[in-house]
Design brief:
Layout (H helix, E strand, L loop, with lengths): L4 E9 L2 E6 L2 E7 L1 H11 L3 E6 L11 H8 L6 E4 L5 H10 L3 E4 L1 H5 L2 H10 L4 E10 L2 E6 L4 E6 H10 L4 E6 L11 H10 L4 E4 L5 H9 L5 E4 L1 H4 L5 H10 L7
Parallel strand pairs: 1-4, 1-12, 4-5, 5-6, 6-7, 7-10, 10-11, 11-12
Antiparallel strand pairs: 1-2, 2-3, 7-8, 8-9
Length: 251
Amino acid sequence: MLSKRIIACLDVRDGQVVKGVNFEGLRAAGDPAELARRYNTEGIDELVILDITATLERRRALADTIRRVARELFIPLAVGGGIRSEDDAAAAVDAGADKISLNTAALSNPSLIATLAGRYGSQAVVVAIDAKRLGDRFAVFARSGSTAADRDAVEWAREAEDRGAGEILLTSIDRDGTKVGFDCPMTAAVSSAVSIPVIASGGAGTLEHFVDVFTVGRADAALAASIFHYAETSVHALKQHLRQRGIPVRL
């Protein structure tokens, strides 16, 4: 069985890491380069930078922040937020990104997925899906969770894979920042529908939540922010716990 990956996420606004609940009420969580250095030392498998206001402000992700973070890392770095075109993606890659994460742009221009996959390879293209439960379906939202996209998360994940995405970053808006656990049914639904890796995001609060999302949720990777930023647990402690529960991880 392939090793499960643990990924830290840096939500960045105005050059600082922030964190909120359900995509709202943001508070400062530290300097992105300092946190990146810490996570690299602690043994995180990958890092994601999301410039959370870039799309709303109609600008590119901040290249200076990407460069500062990339200098601290010897692990894959994914960058999202404000990437609306091939030129935007190239700017992020030139600044140090190994992977490009598309969300709103992929919904409004799905052909961009294939364009970037053709240029950089599918392994470098992540389609981020922000979704919340609406009745018996998982509804997709764009523009930092502010706008309904009239898409179903499972169907959109399938289309993203067909268009060349190499990974899905699936965030539960309902669980974001709540620390009550990942939305395992939603994660399992998407994981079962595609053959590419699915990264689960939103709701991590305890070590056992990661066990749940890797087993019940069938996730290939799990992303967290708050519990790492505020040192509520360490990456090493989490990986040791997962190993003890029979879940393969890289130590």
